[in-house]
Write a structure and sequence with these properties.
Elements: H1 19-37, H2 43-59, E1 74-77, H3 83-93, H4 100-104, H5 134-153, E2 162-167, H6 168-172, H7 174-185, E3 191-197, E4 200-201, E5 204-205, H8 214-220, E6 224-229, H9 233-243, E7 250-255, H10 278-288, H11 299-310, H12 313-325, H13 328-339, H14 344-360, E8 364-365, H15 366-377, E9 384-388, H16 392-395, E10 414-416, H17 421-434, E11 438-444, H18 452-461, E12 466-470, H19 488-493, E13 499-501, H20 506-518, E14 524-528, E15 532-533, E16 551-554, E17 562-566, H21 569-583, E18 588-592, H22 596-600, H23 604-611, E19 616-620, H24 628-631, E20 636-639, H25 649-655, H26 660-673
Parallel strand pairs: 1-2, 2-3, 3-7, 6-7, 9-10, 9-11, 11-12, 12-14, 13-14, 17-18, 17-19, 19-20
Antiparallel strand pairs: 4-5, 8-15, 16-18
Helix pairs in contact: 1-2, 1-3, 1-10, 2-3, 2-9, 5-7, 5-17, 14-15, 14-20, 15-20, 17-18, 21-26
The structure holds thiamine diphosphate.
């Protein structure tokens, strides 16, 4: 706390400050911060200030002294461009660290007040928003997590709402369709969306691009819907009060004027995404009756806001008492879930499975191995929440012990996301952000494209979300090029903070799962085969070579004439090629590279040892992009150069020249070209 204004005692009883004055504090701070930054979006915070004031002063259950209190209501600013609305609220209600100085450095390097709200960057920001539609879909995951956690721990420990502010943009995005459909189907009655119904987006009036009756659309998806004047605090309050009592999610369309108060620009797109300018700001101050200097909030108004911020302290304390008086096992289970620690039972389950795979050496698809992992861990990892976007039988994502989550029974551990990959990713982000759960969900690897924006946010927010992506190459066969990923591995590897795993056999699949569960700050993508793969490693060691990203699976680590690098289904081909080369007196060492990202961060000595100095051939049934790093200028690549085709898998491998013979030939060719 750096300023005199911020030291106002929070014990002060709520002052009879008019809602409008409190809302004008949001408007003024938004205008001032955006003017100072010379960039930002004033229209939305000015338009929604009245609605936000009602929500934060009368309804939202929160405690700025502990932004991570598990039973707080969640507030999601889906319309992330209106970030100043949230930053103003966090400052006014007294979140530690969200100071006036932070508002003065809005959008500047190193400030908490980034251009769009960023999770982990600023206390009180529940999720990163800005890509429209993601926030409302995250909120569906949060509201679902609340119900699922409530089913496990009861009202005493879990009993909160998820509120969303979404604009026309969020509701125009296709993702919103998936999100509202899923929320309506699951009757997530703790989800309340406050729609900034201002009829304006960047290009102008929304009638330029849409004629949808949003209320009818939400109603069709099973939501309770209503429309209010968003500048009438009592009407907004009555609508929220009613929404809290419904048995379904609620949409409150708040008719607002974008840029409310700006004398010549309000109601127009001119206020959407640019500073208003000094004259317009002066005019707005006059129109709103706000005579205070920039960034100055009168003591009585700030005091009223701080009182609103301290409203939740008692509820928080009572909750802490309830947690302390819960029986020991319940309390421990709740806290373990919150900390996200998988626990000892998991290690044993994974070790047992490795021992079984070592003994049996099963020739199974890695998706089948993954199913065995899920079967083994689901009973010992209650925080695990599985799901699939309508491909359960193909992704093999459901354990027998997992019951389906339904609107009538949230105690289950498996979600049928329907044919909605995008909301599956976004909801998993919301579930992970909410806390208490480790979500995983499946679809075909090729359809990562359908949820890529959510995968990107998993990565940006550092969330442990596990994507189980099966049918990972032309090896899926007859479904053809529409379903055969070729560029996906490369494009996912290009994304920062994502671990892309492509295990080569059952053993590596267990180890990839172990890595994904252990890494709490990074999403993982498990790329799994449809087709059976031979067991490569037949010893169950305690260490986890997959965690090192790459390792030697066959051949001499020191003496080698050529190194064959491969991932997933192609590792077995490389081993076969090495056998052929051996018959010709050529020593080939095979390196499995299940996770490039983990290999890249190994000590240089380890990387050098694994890669060796001999010429290299890489093989992967995908495009070459990225392999240059590992094979260098002189290396060869055996893989795909274009889309696949429709045929049985073996025919496709032969047709596209991804064979042991081709790998061996490539190895001999580089040795010849190097004069060896
Ligand atoms: C996925 C995505 N597409 C485009 C944008 C760029 N963009 C930011 S705000 C906006 C218009 C949003 O309109 P609305 O929700 O009505 O906001 P308002 O104008 O009321 O502030 C657009 C297109 C974005 N942030 N995310």
């Amino acid at each position: 706390m750096t300023t005199a204004l911020q030291t106002v005692a929070v014990e002060t009883a709520p002052l009879a400050i008019d809602d409008r004055l409190m809302a004008n504090a949001i408007r003024a701070l938004s205008m001032d911060a955006i003017e100072k930054a010379r960039s930002g979006h004033p229209g939305m915070p000015m338009g929604m200030a009245d609605v936000a004031t009602v929500l934060f002063t009368r309804f939202l259950k929160f405690d700025p002294a502990d932004p991570t209190w598990p039973d707080r209501d969640r507030f999601v600013l889906s319309a992330g461009h209106g970030s100043m609305l949230l930053y103003a609220l966090l400052y006014l209600t007294g979140y530690e660290g969200v100071t006036l100085d932070e508002l003065k450095t809005f959008r500047q390097l190193g400030s908490k007040t980034a251009g769009h709200p960023e999770y982990g960057h600023c206390p009180g920001v529940e999720t990163t928003t800005g890509p429209l539609g993601q926030g409302i879909a995250n909120a569906v995951g949060m509201a679902l997590a609340e119900r699922m956690l409530n089913a496990r721990f009861g009202d005493d420990l879990v009993n909160h709402f998820t509120y969303v502010v979404a604009g026309d943009g969020c509701l125009m995005e296709g993702l919103s369709h998936e999100a509202i459909d899923l929320a309506g189907h699951l009757r997530l009655n703790r989800l309340i969306v406050l729609f900034d119904d201002n009829g304006i987006s960047i290009d102008g009036d929304t009638s330029l691009a849409t004629s949808t009756d949003q209320l009818a659309r939400f109603a069709a998806a099973g939501w309770d819907v209503t429309r209010v004047d968003g500048h009438d605090p009592e009407a907004v309050a009555a609508a929220i009060q009613a929404a809290k009592l419904t048995g379904t999610p609620s949409l409150i369309a708040c008719r607002t004027v974008i840029g409310y108060g700006a004398p010549t620009k309000q109601g127009t797109e001119a206020t959407h995404g640019a500073p208003l300018g000094a004259d317009e700001v002066a005019g707005a101050r006059a129109a709103l009756g706000w005579s205070h200097a920039p960034f100055e909030i009168p003591t009585d108004i700030l005091s009223a806001w701080r009182s609103a911020g301290s409203r939740g302290a008692d509820a928080h304390l009572s909750w802490e008492r309830r947690l302390q008086s819960a029986d020991r096992n319940t309390r421990q289970a709740f806290l373990d879930g919150q900390r996200g620690t998988p626990g000892l039972g998991l290690d044993t389950a994974l070790a047992d499975l490795k021992a079984a795979f070592a003994a049996e050496a099963p020739k199974i698809a890695t998706r089948q191995a993954s199913q065995k992992v899920i079967e083994a861990i689901a009973p010992v990892l209650p925080a695990l929440i599985g799901g699939s976007a309508d491909l359960t039988g193909s992704n093999l994502t459901k354990a027998r012990s997992q019951e389906t989550v339904t609107a009538d029974k949230f105690a289950g551990g498996y979600i049928h996301y329907g044919v909605r990959e995008h909301v599956m990713g976004a909801a998993m982000n919301g579930i992970a952000l909410h806390g208490g759960f480790i979500p995983y969900g499946g679809t075909f690897l090729v359809f990562t494209d359908y949820c890529r924006p959510s995968i990107r946010l998993s990565a940006l927010m550092g969330q442990r979300v596990i994507y189980v992506m099966t049918h990972d190459s032309i090896g899926l066969g007859e479904d053809g090029p529409t379903h055969q990923p070729v560029e996906h591995l490369a494009s996912l590897r290009a994304m920062p903070n994502v671990n892309v795993f492509r295990p080569a056999d059952a053993m590596e699949t267990v180890e990839a799962w172990a890595c994904a569960l252990a890494d709490t700050d990074t999403p993982s993508i498990l790329c799994l085969s449809r087709q059976g793969l031979p067991a490569l490693r037949r010893e169950a060691s305690d260490d986890n070579p997959v965690a090192k990203g790459a390792y030697v699976v066959s051949g001499d680590i020191e003496r080698r004439d050529v190194t064959l690098l491969a991932t997933g289904s192609e590792v077995a081909l490389a081993v076969e090629a090495a056998g052929q080369l051996r018959e010709e007196g050529i020593a080939a060492t095979v390196v499995s590279m299940p996770c490039w990202e983990l290999f890249r961060v190994q000590p240089e000595a380890y990387r050098t040892q694994v890669l060796g100095t001999a010429p290299r051939v890489a093989v992967e049934a995908a495009v070459e992009t990225g392999w240059e790093r590992w094979i260098g200028e002189t290396g060869r690549f055996v893989g795909m150069t274009g889309f696949g085709a429709s045929a049985p898998a073996d025919d496709l491998y032969a047709h596209f020249g991804i064979t042991a013979v081709a790998i061996a030939a490539a190895a001999k060719a580089i040795r010849t070209s190097k004069g060896e």
